[in-house]
Amino acid sequence: AARLVAPSLSRSALRLASSARTYSRVGTDSTVVHGLVGAVGNTPLIRLNTLSSETGCEILGKAEWMNPGGSVKDRAALYVVEHAEKNGLLQPGGTVVEGTAGNTGIGLAHICRAKGYKLVIYMPNTQSQEKIDLLKMLGADVRPVPAVPFTDPKNYNHQAREHAESLTNAVWTNQFDNIANRLAHIETTGPEIWRQTSNGADLDGFVCSTGTGGTLAGTARFLKTASNNRIKIWLADPPGSVLYAYKTRGVIERTGDGSITEGIGQGRLTDNLAPDWDLIDDAVHIPDSETIKMVFRLLDEEGIFCGASSAMNVVAAVEMAKGLGKGSRVATVICDGAARYQSRLFSKSWLEGKGLYEHIPADLRKYVGL
Ligand code: PMP
Q1: pLDDT band at 205; cut points 50, 70, 90
Q2: How confident is the model at residue 7 (pLDDT cuts 50, 70, 90)?
Q3: What was the ipTM of the complex prediction?
């Protein structure tokens, strides 16, 4: 049978979860933090009140849009840069190169400014002007290149690697397969959720979607280890991704076509996800019609203005809580805010073009204003 890479858990991986934090102090509770890097992490875990009372469960969302760069990817950005520093790959004045069109680029731009590194971002030329402009304003050297598949040597990821290799004192941070990304969540996201739920006593499950897999794998690794396997872990997967079929049926097969969710869905087990694949107890597939409804429900009921991957995670958290039974407590990640997507998610014609407008309940359509 077809098989993606899924190595068994190593001893060193197990030790990781209990090791002391090895990177910059990520946030502190009540003291001055030293520079912007100290403001990464320590985000609130928010009880989503309406969904909780409706389900008779506790639905908890980690407010990652409150990171300085506005997303969960600030954690990975900080760790990949500090991993390079620690390993002598990056000296003062050096250059960071990454292939990304999204939140990782924004996170890297903030971190690189704060630490005095140059940043070069390769991205497919299909990306929105807003994203390019934001990265430029944050000081990045943005290089849009033709949008060709990974198998083509001109793909933006390969160009990023080659560019870094052509420079001295430069690093390709390689978020997909650089396990410093996963380490960020083993050392910060996991322990924070643990502390925020009375050392796991008030938590039964954790679920989230994956792009690189760093968030899911690292948080799962910590919570499984710390709870002695008691806390259940689910993967939430959007249309177009292969991970749902692989987890539930062991076959590599896309479920559905493209999705309105950005930054998530995968066609392979990355090096960040592979070591922890077996820690994931189950997977849930969430159609875009459910996701879009939740974008507007979260805004209407909780005042939370979040992107589509976050809304999808919350739909999955509700399913998981129902699956675990009345009174269960499930945490997920609210990955970023909606401002980055407003020209699409809040546009009637765009939603109509995707066949999604009709799925938004009539009383929530007042939010679709553009
Ligand atoms: N949501 C959004 C909006 C993202 O940009 C990403 C990162 N690509 C994710 C979720 C998934 O995070 P991870 O890379 O840790 O799997």
Answers
A1: very high
A2: very low
A3: 0.99
The tens digit of pLDDT for each residue in 231-245 reads: 999 999 999 999 999
**Cα 73 to ligand 1 centroid, rounded to whole Å:** 7
Residue that is written with structure tokens 């930054």 in the block: 263
CB neighbours of 191 closer than 8 A, spacing ≥ 6? 222, 226
Per-residue pLDDT band for 4 (boundaries 50, 70, 90) equals very low
Is 211's C-beta closer than 6 angstroms to any atom of ligand 1?
yes
Strands, sheet with 58-63, edge to edge from the N-terminal-most edge strand: 45-47, 58-63, 329-334, 205-209, 232-237, 282-285
Radius of gyration, alpha carbons of the chain: 20
Report percent pLDDT > 70 for the chain: 92
Residue nearest atom 4 of ligand 1, based on CA coordinates: 263
Ligand 1 centre and the CA of 315: distance in Å? Answer: 16
CA distance 225 to 69: 29
The closest alpha carbon to 29, from 15, 46, 43, belongs to 43
- Plot region of 198 (φ>0 → left; ψ -120 to 50 → alpha; else → beta): left
Is the separation of the CB atoms in 205 and 232 below 8 Å?
A: yes
